[in-house]
What does this fold into?
Amino acid sequence: MQRYEIMPFDDLWIGEMLDVEVGGVKILLLNVEDEVRAYLDRCPHRASALSEGNLEGLTLTCATHLWEFNALTGRGINPESSELIRFPVHIENGMIYVEVPEAGAIPQHVDQGED
Amino acid sequence: MQQQFVIVGANLAGGIAAITLREEGFDGEIVLIGAEPYPPYERPPLSKEYLQGKKPFEEALLKPDSFYVDHNIHTQFGVRATRIDTREQVVELEDGDRVPYHKVLVTTGVRNRRLRVPGADLEGIYELRTVADSDRIRAESRGGQRAVLAGMGFIGCEVAASLRYHGVDVTVVEFFKTPLFRVLGEQVGRVFEAFHREQGVQMFFEESVAAFEGTRRVRRVVTSTGRRLECDFVVVGVGVEPVTDIVAGSGVKIENGIVVDEYCQTNVEGIYAAGDVANHFHPVFGRLIRVEHWQNAIHQGRAAARNMLGKREPYEDVHWFWSDQYNYNVQYAGFHGGWDDLVVRGSLDERTGVVFYMQEQRIAAAIAFNHGRDVQRVMPLIKARVQVDPATLRDENVDLRSLMPGAKPIRTHQHRVVPRPVARPGEEVR
It folds into this structure.
């Protein structure tokens, strides 16, 4: 795991999402009701970019087939059985840091769910 | 005495209703009856993933057989219900069985329209509704085969895309000017025409099938202009009609399906309807609408169950559906019974954008190509019947969420972020 400094916390407003490539890995950074989260920017359903989706309150919805996730935990709301790949986030001295493994250590995508 | 709720139609709407009843704590008897010999399953894969051979049938099942046993839901699959006897309060089955009910939910869906032309009974002419239908089409789907499709609605479009995936030669005969003409209009219909053409689909518009020719099996389709199209098989997708036979003569109001209010109730006490068959009063649009989409089957099935339990919750979801064709993700939200203005956001030529169907400056519906996020953002606007300035809709710098009354300020610009690897104390930066 490698730690990366991303951006000042104050620059990521509540309800905002940002897609950023970190160490060769596509990450989705979110401010969910003042909590910062970082997930792999890839929907477990058909690998769509979650950053194209919508963050409303605590729910992150993928744009392609409207799969819904709890943005604080990454767990699936609809369908329940899915889960996002999450990366550790630290806020120190007003800066957001994310720990990301090497790109090769990220599990390959396998299509989940039915159409 | 314990209540017994009967659901006629073991499909997505009916299955979801049964599941919802148990989830909501209903501890009476539930009987789920369906004509197909399978537990409830979803139909969208039948024209896409399943037809392409990418997904097994098991993954289309709503729940495995064991689920119904575990949740004490009595099932009768492969049996057709024929009639609801409102006086005796029983559902009659084709095998003579009579199933008593305290409340009954009708989710009998729709059936495909047939073409009544010479040769319609020849072998090799298929339709698509059930998994058995999809199996028949898939058995024919290999390179070198030639298919003629009658109709280019959503089924025609998706089947064309799936057949092209298999390398089948596809020709479509469509009555209107473009694919999906009635639902989407000419301007948007042409976008579909263009990408199907690019994928090698041949299309003839403003023509219909006049006859099928062949000895035992179809060899040729003859169109209304006398065109003769050689083929190995045919798929007919010319629309559907609601299946209302079961309530005929029962006093239940039938008009473009089974008429229900916003609580999924018919005019007859104890009889409910949901899904494709239900012509439901929609509070947002102020009229009856009947919707043939997956999302409605699920949400209305759930709403009907909750209302059967006395919850009295109006069903007023803004309708939404999707269609995946080739690598295009198309999404649609809302309901328009006609429109007075079309507003385009993004680029139809580049096939990434949204088209808004307007009625008196309100968004009645929207269709998006590879732009699902905006469809989600527009659904509250449709529901709230907000009037919007077309110029604002066209401006891609405007976040659609900001158009809701009372919306918080939303920032659309993000300065560039460049992540920087840092060492932890004692580590080196790689």
